[in-house]
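Lab meeting, item 3. Inverse folding demo.
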């Protein structure tokens, strides 16, 4: 059984309700058919019956719950609740209702906020900002979490590195140039995510172009400081660095470059120093190694709200929904 099939099986054991607000995208309909057929989650689609009928032509989505914001009795309740949440920001009733009717992501987040759904997956045809802004305004950050970050769950075929080819790469979608404190927080959140999804011990490598002082630069200093902070604040996890990629995952290289590290040579969680490195890194592995790349999956929000790459396939959406359902458990 493949890794993502294992995730699906775990999702089936405690089925959650996931909202897919992008009912205007045919890939969402194809994914919905697959999710419902496999019975791994309940699906809510947001949109008018007419629009959804057009987009879903040829797909069986009969078991999905379709909510039309213009006619649903829920809209009044969600509008009043949204006004209550955002009253300190001066949001009026009319503006709140307009948001819910014109931006289905707000409607989806309100369904989660009021306990009518467990998670949201969006981003197939919207930007990361459009996906996460409503989530941060409505659902907000998880208590005790410094920041919201993202990761990709990478499944590399025929690979002995990591956890038999399974890795978490972070942050590849949100934090442009994290400070040392933020890098340390990303490391801890990523370790927690790996533990949840893979059910193995996370071994976190803080990546750099330097290994244990082999190069001197302010960029290296940032990672070194992040490792110090992480070891102090998140001592429950094995986090080490700074490490070059080969020293992080190849035992033979690690034995010469970082012989005293408990992480080097065996890392399964890779924390990149900035968004450029992370985004380039995951796409290189995805395209050149033909790896499965699920994400960007968010971490640090009080309930799971996950972004999709706009180049995603229906199968990618199915995988992210499975991960979201598991996070909601």
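The presenter then showed the designed sequence:
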């Amino acid at each position: 059984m493949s890794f993502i099939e294992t995730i699906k099986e775990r999702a089936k054991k405690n089925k959650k309700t996931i909202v897919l607000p992008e009912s205007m995208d045919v890939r969402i309909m194809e994914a919905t058919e697959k999710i419902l057929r496999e019975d791994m989650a309940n699906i809510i689609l947001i949109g008018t019956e007419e629009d959804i009928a057009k987009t879903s032509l040829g797909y069986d989505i009969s078991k999905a719950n379709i909510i039309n914001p213009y006619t649903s009795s829920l809209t009044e309740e969600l509008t009043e609740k949204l006004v209550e949440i955002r009253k300190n920001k001066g949001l009026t009733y009319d503006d709140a209702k307009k948001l819910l009717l014109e931006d289905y992501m707000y409607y989806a987040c309100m369904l989660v906020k009021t306990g009518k759904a467990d998670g949201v997956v969006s981003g197939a045809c919207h930007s990361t900002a459009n996906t996460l802004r409503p989530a941060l305004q409505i659902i907000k950050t998880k208590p005790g979490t410094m920041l919201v970050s993202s990761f990709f769950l990478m499944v590399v075929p025929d690979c002995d590195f990591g956890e038999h080819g399974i890795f978490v790469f972070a942050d590849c979608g949100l934090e442009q140039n994290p400070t040392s404190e933020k890098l340390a927080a990303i490391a801890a959140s990523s370790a927690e995510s790996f533990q949840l999804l893979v059910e193995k011990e996370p071994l976190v490598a803080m990546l750099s172009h330097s290994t244990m002082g082999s190069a001197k630069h302010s960029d290296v200093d940032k990672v070194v400081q992040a490792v110090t902070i992480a070891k102090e604040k998140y001592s429950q996890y094995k986090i080490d660095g700074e490490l070059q990629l080969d020293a992080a995952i190849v035992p033979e290289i690690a034995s010469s470059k970082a012989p005293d590290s408990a992480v080097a040579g065996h890392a399964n969680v890779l924390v990149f120093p900035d968004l450029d490195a992370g985004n380039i890194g995951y796409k290189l592995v995805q395209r050149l190694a033909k790896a499965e790349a699920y994400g960007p999956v968010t971490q640090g929000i009080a309930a799971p709200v996950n972004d999709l790459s706009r180049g995603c396939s229906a199968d990618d959406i199915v995988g992210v929904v499975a991960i979201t359902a598991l996070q909601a458990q």
